[in-house]
Amino acid sequence: MRKPVVGVIGNSYRVENRFQVQMVGERNLRAVAEVSGGLPLMFAGSPDITDIAALLDTVDGIILTGARANVHPTRFNVDPCEKHEPYDIHRDEVALALSVACVARGIPLFGICRGLQEMNVAFGGSLHPEIRELPGRMNHRMPRLENGEIHPDPTVVFADRHDVDLTPGGAFAKILGCERIRVNSLHGQGILDPGKRVLIEGVAEDGTIEAIRIAEAPTFALGVQWHAEYDPQHNPINRKLFEAFGEALVTRQKAAA
Hints:
It is a single chain. By secondary structure, this protein is of the alpha/beta class. It is built from 7 helices and 13 strands. Helix 1 (26-36) crosses helix 7 and helix 3 crosses helix 4. Keywords: Hydrolase. It comes from Bradyrhizobium vignae. GO terms for molecular function: hydrolase activity.
């Protein structure tokens, strides 16, 4: 049997302020290849060159990765604000439609950070552009130096920052074998109101939604607010999630054979 093929969404960037490119963080690709056992295949977050139906005929699963850009507020009926830029409206169009299509077709879907947010919006939910501005919330953004620059040490940036309480008996609790975990935190935007089919399965100590499942999905359809692609070879929480995603890929592949 061939390796399951996993579509990993690309993000729009401009290199050297001249060249428009699509990029995927290598950690995502390695997590798929080395832990889930799949063949990662990047696809463009551009609706004019990405045929979703053809893509889903090709892959056995989809990963919606994290990204610097926020989901555009008009997607959940809020006016945009310059201070919450950048946005990536083309990725929005692909990822939101793709989330619904994956669930409808029974294709495993794993949303990470922005991916969780996209899944929530796709099913009618809303987001807050700066979770830390809500009363009682902590700063969930990545650690920075006193001068405002991002901390240069990735072990500091991706260090575990807070606890997450999981729903007893839920999908995450079953996969991870516990009801409390500790995770990293590298986001500003977060879920405000969950979508109609979005079940909350993990909440941070300050009330921020950290793990979701799409109700009545026929296969793996989970999202996490933390960066689960970070060091899944050694981080047992992230490893178990990518292993569970890999199991769903194999099951899907066999069913489609």
